[in-house]
Amino acid sequence: MNYKTDTIMIKLIKYVALCSTLVLGISCTDQLRLDERETSFNKDYFTYSRYQLTTSILNVAKSYGKSAIDAPKGQAALYFMDTYSADQIAGFYNKTDANWSYQDVNAYAGTGADGAGQLRTLEAVTKLATTEGNMANVAAADIMKCVVGAYLTEKYGDIPFTEAVQGRAGELFPKFDSQKVVYETMFAMLDKAVAILADPNSKGLPADHDVLFKGDKTKWIKFANSLKFRLMVHSYDAFKKAGKDLGADMQAIAGGTNYMSTVADNAGLTFPGIAEADSWYMQRTWGSGNTFTEQKPTKYLIDQLVALDDPRMYVIFAPVLSPLSSKPTKVDETIKINGFSYVINHYPATAADAAALTAAGRDLNGNVTSVPYVLDAKWFGTPNPTNVQSLYGGTGLAGSNGFYDNRRITGFSNLLAKASDPRLKAVLMEADEMAFLLAEARQKGWISAGTVKGYYDNGIKLSFQRWQIEDGTKPATHIGSDKIVDNFAAYTAKAGVALDGTAADLDKIALQKWLSMLITNQTEAYTDYKRTGKPAFVGKIAQSFGAYTYPQRYMYPLDEASNNKANYDAAVSGLGGKDLPSAKMWILN
């Protein structure tokens, strides 16, 4: 949904920023408890549920979508490597946040323009809307609570949920619900939300305050069912071991039509782009531009895209801007791809330091290998996480954005530098993800509706469509293009893409889902690898660069260990007694 013309967004950001400034004046070591006691919150902030609905949708989506620039998650998914701090996966092992972190915001009692306590605001929606009789607003709030709750439990494990944000009722030290209970609670909340929204007499969701779906209850229902299906896929094996088969519930969704199935169903917000605070995460209109240039795609990602001649590469990435060249002298050329122009500076390799022509990398099994630079490379990713900015002599080249911008390596396209575009969204969930979830569930025999191939091919098509790639006759080259056109049927028929009815189909489903989540949902990509071990090369390569086990979770925040110790200790005992990133949460056992 595009709310670029909606002035609510601008007013809301200013309002949230003002509230944030007021709250930031409080200094404390126990922010959760003091925020819960903040009596002025009711008087100054709680008004009508429709206003809080707008606030909460914005803050939940904006923070969740921020995973697009989350360096540790990007590297854990083997998408990107951070030029500033090298190996980000190790960051899972030496960093403990002070408070709960929902993409840098404390969802329970956080402050800041990126989201002021999403769960607290959603609880306000629930209470206000219930009093008003606007139960459709309650349903929407519960769906968004499940987005946040799922994010937190899949990040940490057991979390406060059923007793969370109940400080005004006297519950200042909430228990940590087991992950099983969190999932069961979310399933019930989503079912209840669907029932409310399906009732033609339910009131609420005014179009001018529902910035996600403009008051369209059918789209909220599809979102709720799709989110529930995502969570059931994540937890199916764990519930099966616990004696409950989720297959019937999954079939009930898959056998119907009330789930995300078109790009129009996607749950995401388009940024207005009028000011820095309401612009796409990587924009270069304001600020230093570091967010745009600090992450470089891995060799392993670019190699997959090149091998498949994947049209998404030409939308998301730019060609190498300063390649080492076979040309005897420096040559500049300007090319256009997808309507954006790029100036390519070819540097003669004969003038480069011989040591710059080769770098150490890993093959897809994690074995050390030498990676020579491909002269006049158009698409070339970084082969390792160390000193990314200096690989192949790429430090400080003319035209670079400072010391850390390596122009010898592929970077993001000029599309991603824009402040606003219909393709650049704060994504919560999209139809292509749902299609791949259905394909996985069907291949594993969890559902009987549809066919694996039907879901899988549709997932690829939907991923292409969300990036505005057109289905048609593929040109000989995308160089000089105003838009990207590819033959969808021909793509799905390629040897590396087409399914063959064997167990290997799961690997192809996982790979295409991994590619489809590029830039849109690194959080889900990280969770997917943890639960499936696919694509297999992600773990093999990631672990080969350090002496550690692939991180399975984030450690609990310091505030809970010190101020909610009894409940924290109980949660840690469920992890084997140690709060470690290598400990496996319930859904992963």
Automatic annotation (TrEMBL):
Keyword Methyltransferase on entry: no
InterPro entries: SusD-like (IPR024302), SusD-like_2 (IPR041662), TPR-like_helical_dom_sf (IPR011990)
One Pfam family hit: SusD-like_2
Keywords attached to this entry: Lipoprotein
The protein's name: SusD/RagB family nutrient-binding outer membrane lipoprotein
Protein species of origin: Dyadobacter psychrotolerans
